[in-house]
Structures
1.
Amino acid sequence: SAVISQKPSRDICQRGTSLTIQCQVDSQVTMMFWYRQQPGQSLTLIATANQGSEATYESGFVIDKFPISRPNLTFSTLTVSNMSPEDSSIYLCSVGLTYEQYFGPGTRLTVT
Amino acid sequence: SQKIEQNSEALNIQEGKTATLTCNYTNYSPAYLQWYRQDPGRGPVFLLLIRENEKEKRKERLKVTFDTTLKQSLFHITASQPADSATYLCANKIGGTSYGKLTFGQGTILTVHP
C-alpha cells in the first residue's frame, strides 16, 4: 500500500493568482498522477508525472496552466496558474501499485 | 471514444438489504474494471478489481461481476450498513497504456438508512 499526503488541504485564492499543491508519498514510485474533481463531478486525469522527465498532459490540460514538478521518486507538485473561478475543484494526487491506485486526501481549492 | 457510465446518481436502501450498483462501458473492451469508495472530503479508496476473464470477485460483503456481453459490471454490498454510505466509483485504465491512468464513472451516492 501507499500513504499519500497533500498540502494544503484547502485554500481560498483570488482570481489571477497561482497555487502550488504538494504531494508526498511514503514510498518510491515511478509514476504519480494528478486528478481534478470538480464540484459534484467525478475525477478527471490532468497529467502523469514521471521522475526525470516532463509530465504528460491529458487532452484539455496544458503545461502553462498546470505546471508539474517531479524532483524525486516520492514527491511532486502541481501548480494551478492564473486561476479563475472555473478552477475551483478538488485536486488529488495518486500513485499506482500494480493495479491498485492510491489517492491522497485532496486539496480543495476555491477561487474567488 | 471510450465511455464508462454509472446509471444511478443516487441509491437509497434500508439497512440489511443488498445494494446493487451498475457500471456500463461503451466503445471498448476493458481488460479490467475497478471499484472505489469515496467519502466526503477524502480521496477514493480502492475496493475491488475484476478482470475480463473473471465472472465474479468477492471480498467480505462485497461482490463484483463482469458481463462482457452486456458490457456491464455490477457491484453488490450485502447486508448493507449505514457505514457503507458513500460514493462508489467504477474506473478503468485509459486506453492500453499504463495502469495508473484511469477514467472514472460519475459515481453513485449510496445512502443506507437505519
2.
Amino acid sequence: DQQVKQNSPSLSVQEGRISILNCDYTNSMFDYFLWYKKYPAEGPTFLISISSIKDKNEDGRFTVFLNKSAKHLSLHIVPSQPGDSAVYFCAARHGGGADGLTFGKGTHLIIQP
Amino acid sequence: DAGVTQSPTHLIKTRGQHVTLRCSPISGHKSVSWYQQVLGQGPQFIFQYYEKEERGRGNFPDRFSARQFPNYSSELNVNALLLGDSALYLCASSLGLALYNEQFFGPGTRLTVL
C-alpha cells in the first residue's frame, strides 16, 4: 500500500503564476515531511521540509503547508520560474526513524513561458 | 567540495548474475542510505548504514545486502538478479542518523537486467 500519494503525475503552470503541488499520506506515525526536486540524470535535491508540529514553513519562493487532520500537505511555488521545471517528490519520515524516507511517485512540474 | 559520487553510472546484467554498486559520501558524512527507484515510482528505502553498522532496512529480500567501510564509503550488493531489479539505485549521505534535510543524494546508478 502506498503511504505517501501524489495523485497528479504532471502539472503545467505559466511562468510567473503560482504552482501548487499536493501530497496525501496515510500513516499517522509520520512526523516529518520533505519535498525534493529532481532533474533528469541527477539525484533528488532537498527543497523544503516541515515538522508535524507546524502547519507552515516558508523559504523564499517555496512554502509548504501541512494539514494534519486531513493528512495532506502542499508545496506552493510563487512566482514559478522556468528553472522550476522538474519532478517533485513528497517524502515522509516515520517517527521511529529506522525505516528511511517514504516517497511519493512524484509530480512532473512544467513551467510554460 | 565533491558531492555524493556513485559508480558505475550505468550497468547491464543478465538474470541470475550478481552486481556491486559503489557510493562515496560527502567528506565528513558518516551515514549512507540506499534507495531503489523503479521507473514511474518514487525512491524506495533499502538500507541505512551509520558508523559501519546497519541501522535501518526496508522491505527488500535477502538478495540485497550492503556494507560500509572505515572511510564511510559503501557498497550495495544484489545477488541472483531478477528482471524486476532493473532500476535507478540512489545513494544518499548525511552527517548523522537523522533522515532530515541534511540527506544529500548522488546521481544514481542505472541498472538494467536482461
3.
Amino acid sequence: DQQVKQNSPSLSVQEGRISILNCDYTNSMFDYFLWYKKYPAEGPTFLISISSIKDKNEDGRFTVFLNKSAKHLSLHIVPSQPGDSAVYFCAARYLDSGNTPLVFGKGTRLSVIA
Amino acid sequence: EPEVTQTPSHQVTQMGQEVILRCVPISNHLYFYWYRQILGQKVEFLVSFYNNEISEKSEIFDDQFSVERPDGSNFTLKIRSTKLEDSAMYFCASSEVGTGSDNEQFFGPGTRLTVL
C-alpha cells in the first residue's frame, strides 16, 4: 500500500532550467510533508518541508507547493545546478503526539546536465 | 556540524546469524529511529525509540528485531537470526523533539547489510 507515491523514477534537466519533482499521497491524515535529498553512499538529507496549513514554502532555490485537495505536492528547483543531481524522496507524517515516523515515496533520481 | 554516525558501513553475514548495527545519534537529540531501504525500493520505517522504550514500530519490526540504548551515546539495532530478505541499507535517524514542525529527522549514512 503506497501511501506516498513518486511516479517518476527519474528526471533529466538542463543546468539553469527548472526541475519539478512531483509527489502524491493517499492518506488524508498526513499533515506535514518533507523533501529529502540523497547522494550515493550517504543517508537522506533534509531539504525543505511544508505544513498542511500552507500551500507554499520557499527556501532559496527550493520551493515546495502543496495542493491538499488534490493530495499532491511538488518540489521546484530553480535554477537547477549539477550538484543537485541526487535521488529526491518525498515523505509525509502526522503532527500528533509521539515521535511519528516518516512515510517515504520511492524517490526520483534527478540528473542535472551541464 | 553535528551528525548521526553509523557502524559498520557494510556488514556481511550468513543466514541465521545475529547482527548488531550501531548508531551514534546527535548528542542533544532525544528521539531515535531505524529505517531500512531494500535495493530499488522505498525507505521504510522500522521503529522509533524515546525515553528508553519503543514508541512505535512497523509490521516489519517483528520478534527477530530489537533495539537498545546501552549507554548514553549508542543506539543499536539487533537482528537475532538474519534472513536473506533482511539484506538492505539500514538508516538510523534522530530528532531533537518528537512532535510538531521542528521534528526534523537527521539521518546517518547507513549500514549496508548483506545476508548470504
4.
Amino acid sequence: GALVYQYPRRTICKSGTSMRMECQAVGFQATSVAWYRQSPQKTFELIALSTVNSAIKYEQNFTQEKFPISHPNLSFSSMTVLNAYLEDRGLYLCGAGPAGQNTLYFGAGTRLSVL
Amino acid sequence: GQQVQQSPASLVLQEGENAELQCNFSSTATQLQWFYQSPGGSLVSLLSNPSGTKHTGRLTSTTVTKERRSSLHISSSQTTDSGTYLCAKTSGGNYKPTFGKGTSLVVHP
C-alpha cells in the first residue's frame, strides 16, 4: 500500500534556530508533495505544493525564505523551518500524491515546539 | 469565506449511538476526502468520495456534488472513534486539498 513517513515525529527547538523535517513516500511515486501546518486551534494551512520537475509554489503568507523545501526525487521531500519562533509551533504534515490521481497520502506529521 | 465548512463543531455520544457529520463546500470539488485525526495528531484517510455513496466498515459517506455537500455517517460508535474528523476538498488537478475545521467527536463508554 501507499505509505508516507515523516520524521522526526516530535521536535523542540530554541527560538531563532532552525528545524528540518523529512517526508518519505513508500509504495508509490510522490509526484506531488504538499506541506501543511496545523497551528494550535487552527485548521490545516497549506504552506506549499511541490511537483517534481516544476517550481515549488508557496501559498500566501508562506515564503521560500522561511520554509525552504527540497523535493529531489519521487520518494523524498524535506522542509526546513528557518529562524523558528513561537508562531511556528504546530503540527507539520506532508501529503504526497502520485501522478494521475487526485489524492494525497498523509504522514503522521512532525510536531514542532519552540522554546 | 471558509471554502469548506463542517458541522457540528463538536459532538458527544454514548457508545453505540450513530453519528452524522456534515461537510459543505463553496465551489466544485473534483475530490472529496474524509480524514480522521487522532488525539495525537496523526492524520488517516478514511474515504475518498467525490460523488455518490461509499461504505467502509461502519463508515458511510454520501456526497451530492451538485449541492456541494458531503456527509459521513458513523454507525454504532465506539470509544476508539473519538478524535477529529476532517473533510477536505480538491478542485481541479492541483493536489491541494482544502480542509475544513473539523468535527471533534467524543464517544463515552
